[in-house]
Every structure is written in C-alpha cells, then in structure tokens.
Amino acid sequence: MPDKRYLLSFIREGEHQQQDFKYRVADACKLAKSVSAFANTDGGRLLIGVRDDGHLSGVRSEEEIFMMHQAAYRYCKPEPSITFDTCHADGRTIVIATIPPSAKRPVYARDEEGRMRAYVRIADENIVASPVLLTLWRESQKPRGTVITYDEKMRQLLSIMSGSQTLNQIVRLSRLPRRIVIAILARLIRFGTIVWEYKGQQFRFALA
C-alpha cells in the first residue's frame, strides 16, 4: 500500500482512544505524556507531523525524530515498548509511533517541572491517573489469589456506596483514612465489585 493511502486510512479515523495527532514535537515532555497514556490504557499510535485537522505538516528535522526517541526512552519510566515507522507523502515525512499496552503499569512520564506522573487515555485526552488506578496497576502485578476477604473496613466502605461517587466523597462518607479507601477501591475494582469511570473531569466509582 502506498504511504499516502496508508496514512490517510489512519487520519480518516480522527483522534480517539487509541490515536493522537501531533503537529510537531516541540517538547519531549508533552510527547512522553501521550506515550504514558497509551501504555497505561489500551495502547495506541501517535501520528507525528499531522495537524489536528488531519492535514500533513511533516516532521521538520532529524532533531524532532531524536526528541521522539528521548520522550520514549528517557522521559518515561519504566521504559515502554515503542516502535517508530517513517512514511513519506506529498514531500513530507510523517512518523508513526506505535505504543502497545504495557505489562508493567503504571508507566510514568516526566512533566515540565520534573515530576513523574502517570497518565491514562480517555477518549481523545491524556488524563493524570487517579491514585486508585495507580494502586490497582501495582496490585495487578501480584498474584490475584482465589478469594477476597471482606473485613470491617471494606464493609464500612461498601455500606456508603450509592450511585457514582468521587474518591473524596467516599473518604468523607466512610470516615476511613484516604490511603485505606484507595487500597480498598483498587482491590474491589480488581475483583469486579467496583467499577470506575471518568465523568465531568473527575474519576468516579460505583458498585458494579
């Protein structure tokens, strides 16, 4: 398939959960944020040198290509798996960076202030991950076991669950320490008792 047709088949899809357009790479930190989000969610691809409206702008220099590699391998921890393919269309160079979902979540990205943050991809946005998700990902690296023990703290938390609630609401209503609530929610999500969603620019939790 010619490069242009190959590119256009992706561009027609627009930006979504597993695809993002980058006009140019001016900052490795911003690119690292997208890499983190894809690695922590369902994987995806970055079309670098493509404007938000789908027009081809192209990658301008070898320096930008070098910055992409820096974003993936220096600004993200643990180092994600990522492949780069170069396409040529209309005299322009487009780079397709493909990021599979990571088996070692959370994948953190260094932001502009040097802080390491993990992101999640929701629709066409990269969102800072909830501390509940961070705990869930870490717990998922451990053997699941066969049963879940419902102790008094867990029962206390479940007794106040009504509709869709934020982490802060659950902490306040349950009167449990925040770290305990985070740990319980992560465990209950892992076992399918609680589900989460991102709505109204907030992570919310509800009984499954």
SS content category = alpha+beta
Largest sheet: 4 strands, mixed
What is the arithmetic mean of pLDDT? 90
The total domain count is 2
* pLDDT < 50 runs, ≥5 residues: none
Question: What's the CATH H-level homologous superfamily of the largest domain?
Answer: Schlafen, AAA domain
CATH architecture label of the largest domain: 2-Layer Sandwich
Count of distinct strands: 11
CATH domain fold name of the largest domain: Methyltransferase, Cobalt-precorrin-4 Transmethylase, Domain 2
Strand order of the largest sheet: 1-2-5-4
CATH class of the largest domain: Alpha Beta
Rg measurement, Å: 20 Å
Distance between the termini: 45 Å
3D structure, described in words:
With 208 residues, this protein is an alpha+beta fold. The longest helix has 13 residues, at 28-40. The strands form 3 sheets. A 4-stranded mixed beta sheet has the order 1-2-5-4. Strands 3-6-7-8 form a 4-stranded antiparallel beta sheet. Strands 9-11-10 form a 3-stranded antiparallel beta sheet. It has 2 domains: 3-128, Schlafen, AAA domain (Methyltransferase, Cobalt-precorrin-4 Transmethylase, Domain 2, 2-Layer Sandwich), CATH 3.30.950; 131-207, Arc Repressor Mutant, subunit A. The protein has helices at residues 3-11, 28-40, 62-73, 131-139, 152-159, 167-174, 178-190, and strands at residues 19-22, 44-48, 76-77, 83-89, 92-99, 108-110, 116-122, 125-128, 165-166, 194-199, 202-207. The mean pLDDT is 90.
